[in-house]
Design goal:
By secondary structure, this protein is α/β, with parallel strands linked by helices. The chain has helices at about 5-15, 35-40, 45-65, 80-100, 165, 185-195, 215-225, 320-335, 360-370, 385-390, 415-430, 435, 450-455, and strands at about 20-25, 30, 30-35, 105-110, 110-115, 120-125, 130-135, 140, 145, 160, 175-180, 200, 230, 235-245, 245-255, 255-260, 265, 270-275, 305-310, 345-350, 355-360, 370-380, 395-400, 405-415. The termini are far apart. Bound molecules: flavin-adenine dinucleotide (FAD) and nicotinamide-adenine-dinucleotide.
Amino acid sequence: MGAGPGGYVAAIRCAQLGMSVACVDEWLNRGEPSLGGTCLNVGCIPSKALLESSHLYATSSNDFPDHGINVKGVSVDVKAMIARKDRIVKELTQGINGLFKTNKVKLVHGHAYVSPGKVVNVSDRGSPHTRESLEAGNIIIAAGSSTVRLDRAPITDGYIFDSTGALDFDSVPKTLGIIGAGAIGLELGSVWSRLGSEVVLLEALDTLLPSADKQVSRAVSRSYKQQGLDIRLNARLLSATVKQKKVHVTYEDTRGAQQVKFDKLVVAVGRKPNSDGLFGDELGLEIDEREYIHVNNYCETSVPGLYAIGDIVRGPMLAHKASEEGIMVAERIAGQPSAVNYDLIPNVIYTHPEVAWVGKSEYACNSAGIPANIGTFPIAASGRARAMGATDGLVKIVAHQETDRILGVHVCSAQASELIAQAVIAMEMGASAEDLALTMFAHPTLSESVHEAALAVHNRAIHVKN
Ligand code: FAD
Ligand code: NAD
């Protein structure tokens, strides 16, 4: 049930393992059935397409002169940018149709509802009538999540948007407010800020990216400030109303009530699991107090033969986590002893610089009483970063003081999303900081910063004072 990165990957893996598979999905993109769920239609992919386009624009406007490149009259055609994003989404979502055909996955468009006896009833969206019933030995629920809405800032055509609306503006708003400075707020805030909006992010917490390493969070906050992103912490939304073609926002911070006006407002305060309307009480499926389907480490629900994966279950709402759970479940149904390593899920924020981390932070180790050695390397000391003109950030490695095993890696840098994969591989292999220190890295690369941070764990970094 569901063809997002959880469901479509699970369907393909089940088919590869010789099962007869049907995948039911109800997503409509501009009125047409479209596979890939949130991630491909309104999430990971369209946001990265716009991040790429806006980065190119900002680079050509701000950085080209420093490279001795003179370009005059650089301008933005928002409609063309959005059309490119839509083309990429279409190619990728249609690609999944192709993969389903190749793997002989039967695709059923419609709303799925599970009844006892492992029956999935499919209806047309909004219709109470079952159009088709499918019986299955096993059912994987991968129905994903949707945006959390705020009564204090109701979605209002042309003025107040959720993340999906913010991927489809037809012009650059002069002023843009964003409620929530999490992954979506920072990424979409970056897109529109690079294109010329004055962006203000109102964040309820007192820290930016509280799950990231504190040093990394401080470093990236400085970069955001230099870019002109105005991030206001401790800011609790009180109201947002549309008056005279502006969104009037009232919020409360440590100094009291504040007022600010925007041309558009985006609400990006998290997502909630789509567990409503999937099954009735008679199924006996356990749901927790936050409406996630309750599962164990193997994504088994309280009902034998029924599994749930991805955003609809506990853990970070990330596409790669959903996909890995899909593969694990498919393989376990086929009798294989697969498992997901929940300790090593990489997190990435695709701003500039990017922020990426995996494993434990220094703070988490200290709080848990785990003795740790720390190695840090400032990106500014990397020759490649200087050549690129991307010198903000650092790489930080946390290793166990006694065993030297790498416990966490935290990166703030251009291409941190790629650098972090090296850390995940090393940690999956149980590497020590010394293992990385003994490894040869090509010069000049950003990856050398990972090497230097590993050397720094034992005060042996070459290009920085230890
Ligand atoms: P979904 O992708 O939500 O898919 C669920 C599918 O199930 C949908 O197609 C839905 O229509 C269908 N469905 C639901 N109920 C039914 C039903 N009853 N019957 C039939 N079909 C049903 N994650 C990352 O890892 N990296 C990123 O860069 C990233 N960027 C993001 C940017 C944005 C703007 C957003 C909103 C999210 C982003 N995410 C990102 C999160 C990522 O999109 C989700 O974690 C991921 O899509 C979850 O996958 P899923 O398969 O669990 O659910
Ligand atoms: P989020 O949980 O990352 O951030 C929401 C932010 O809003 C939090 O910092 C929270 O403190 C703040 N907030 C909540 N209520 C508020 C209020 N009333 N006023 C002000 N601030 C408030 O959620 P998101 O950014 O909406 O993203 C949703 C999900 O999608 C996340 O789970 C994320 O993992 C996923 N996602 C991932 C990526 C990525 O991997 N790069 C990108 C986008 C989205």
